[in-house]
Amino acid sequence: MKITTLLFFLSLYQLCGAQVPDLTNWKIDTLPTGDRIYTANHSPDNWIFSKSGEKWEVVKNDFKRENGDSLPFPPDFIAKNLKEIRGNRYVKKTADGFLVGLNKGEFGGGLYFIKPDGLDGYEIARYLNIRTIFEYKSKYFAIEGLAHLGSERGQILEIFKSDTVWKYTSLTHLIEAPALITDYNNEKVIVTSQYLLKFGSEFTVSEILKSPLYWGVLYPSSILINNADIYLAMRKGVLKIKAFDTNPAYEWYTPK
Question: Which of 82, 161, 170, 249 is most buried as measured by Cβ atoms within 10 A of its Cβ?
Answer without folding.
Answer: 82
